Amino acid sequence: MTEFQAASKMRELMTEYYIEAKTTKEKPIAWVTSGAPVEFLYTMDVLPIYPENHSAMCGAAHKSLELIEAAEAVGFSPDICSYARTDFGADMTKGGPIQGLPAPDMLLCSTNICKTVIKWYEVVARNYNVPLFIVDTPFMHDGLTRDLIDYTTTQFKNLEEFLTGFTGRSFDLDRFEEVLKFSLEAANYWKKILQLGKTKPSPFNSQDTFIHLAPIVTLRGTQKCADYYKILYEEIRDLAAKKVGSIPKEKYRTLWDNLPIWFKLRRLAEFFEDKKCALVVATYTNSWGGLGDDYDPKNPYEGLAKAYLSVYINSGFEHRINYLASLIDEYSLTGFILHSDRSCKPYSIGMYRMQEEVTRLTGKPGVIIEGDMCDPRVYSDAQTETRLEAFIESMEDSE
Amino acid sequence: MSYFAGIDVGSLTADAVLIDETSNIISYAILPTGHDSQKAGTMAFRTALEQAGALEVDVAGVVSTGYSRGRVEEAGNSKTEISCHARGAFYYFPEVGTIIDIGGQDSKAIRVRPDGRVLDFAMNDKCAAGTGRFLEVMAGALNAPLEMMGKLALESTVEITISSTCTVFTESEVVSLISQGRKPPDIASAICRAIANRTSGLATRVGVADTVVMTGGVAKNRAVVKMLSEKLGHIIMVPEEPQIIGALGAAIIAREGGS
Questions:
Q1: Sheet holding B59-65, edge to edge
Q2: Measured on CA atoms in the order B208, B213, B216, B220, is the torsion positive or negative?
Q3: Is A389 within 8 Å of chain B by CB?
């Protein structure tokens, strides 16, 4: 993994964020999903806390299994998302690296990432007896339509009303504009960073971007988040200009689809480095880079609706296939890796067909590996690495 | 005369193949892997050398494969079973298009390019159902020798169905069929069909070409081969000794300078 100078700044930001979350007396706390429109919360001085980010952190710290087992012990099925199980377990036992999350005062859940979040947040709402606002972002089977935009925009207006009632304060449009500006700035820097992966050799690999994703997920809409990505962008831009690669000898360039396997991040990074294979683009990290694409200062609600509807896993199968094929082309990739994540059904469904189609469109080999973002019991090093190695051999044969 | 060796250390057996400069098979060995995979690989290699009356210094290159490929001291390089089975099957059947390999803990289907290299592959998910280990467990439950399972299955007269979703559940299903007084050949046949059904899905995923070759230990089970062939509607070719194809492919890669 690449150690960027900016990394210490990120650790500082994340530590401050969690300290504030744990100690704040003034700000109400909202638990939110990763694809929720947090710009509304930051506008109203409500502090968003992300159980998904926390679960990822538990997974990377090799603490998720004990939390998952605690959740299963009270009856949550092993078939439920491992982020949800990690969250339930952390909440019950106050375990994990930061001893659980601070209690929520409200919940905001958006269905653009999956439908599991509805039930997950209903459980949390019952446990804490706090209000839950659900933003229902319909699935984009055939692209963005006027109906979808209007439907979502209306809900954003409702969210605004809900927050006004919840905080007892009026919605400050100037502040909203400022938050949007920061959100847009961070998303745009993030996007520019990710596009530097087109450089040969790539100055970063996707394992790095999985780590550096934390601020854009949690602090999107704040100035410090925008500032952080500016620093990171400048550092990576300079590395790209100097042709410094993230791995010493980049021979293969691949794409990673789906969530990271948090508990194997380091082992896989070493594995790929040893095989001279750089992961230069990931659909997962790209999801936060597109948030600025639809920004419209004249019509911020509609811009946000478009942005939050258009996230990768809320879009139709054909769009996803074409998107993967276009990334393979734009990033000059030699192959692609599809992580069939047992927990994340909407991300993993249809992967066999997807592999076939993307190979047909691009002529590049692909591989499907079975894993999970947080549950180590469903992952096998030997099986996965054999598949990946065979995939790398097939890229070698294709040369 | 220089030799080249391939050593395939899998979950059930360790196999070694010795070939000469023109890829003639000189000798081979198949030994149980046991608990020490490193030692098993060495033993298989030495046994093959002994049979050929050769010494280690006569061997110009060694490539390892199989799950313990990284733990074979004698090897200069390692390749995955997928690439090795492709090369080994290509050696026997140059027209091969699809390979079905059922090994100890993996079953895989490989699509091969006209030059014997891998085009695409699919493997079983994280589950041992339908693998060699599955067959071994069921043979244990039936109290029948593993190598007799195919012969036994072909004697079946009544078709029964068992699930193919899980080794543990299937084993208890087999035990309950025995206690119901069902005949061992019929149960053996149901077990073989479960393997064939599960594997045919993999083969269909990568595409069934004109020439289908089956490799790996389970290819010795004539009932599985017959049922798979019926299911796919295709003749399946089986090399003379299907269990050494991975090691053979590794030896060929060693000869080509892959070590």
A1: B25-32, B13-19, B3-9, B59-65, B77-78
A2: positive
A3: yes
Residues B135 and B209 placed together within one structural domain of the fold:
yes
H helix runs in A140-222, sequence order: 146-167, 173-195, 206-211, 214-218
- Quote the domain boundaries for residue B10: 1-93+244-259
**ipTM value of the model?**
0.84
> For residue range A171-191, what is the model confidence (pLDDT) as tens digits?
999 999 999 999 999 999 999
Number of domain units in chain A: 1
Cβ pair A390:B83 closer than 8 A: yes
SS3 label, residue B166:
coil
| Residue A254 located in a structural domain | no
Residue B163 has a pLDDT of 78
DSSP states of A268-302: HHHHHHHTTEEEEEEHHHHTTTGGGTT--TTSHHH
Query: What are residue B27's DSSP bridge partners?
Result: B18
DSSP label at B32?
E
Q: How far is B110 from chain A (nearest CA, A)?
A: 11
Distance from CA of A117 to the nearest CA of B (A): 27
Q: How would DSSP label each residue in A30-63?
A: EEE-TTS-THHHHHTTPEEE-HHHHHHHHHHTT-
- Give every residue of chain B whose pLDDT is below 50, as ranges: 259
Say whether both B218 and B113 belong to one domain: yes
> Within this chain, do residues B89 and B100 fall inside the same structural domain, yes or no?
no
What's the CA angle centered on A165, arms A159 and A170, to 5 degrees? 85
Question: Is some CB atom of chain B closer than 8 A to the CB atom of A387?
Answer: yes
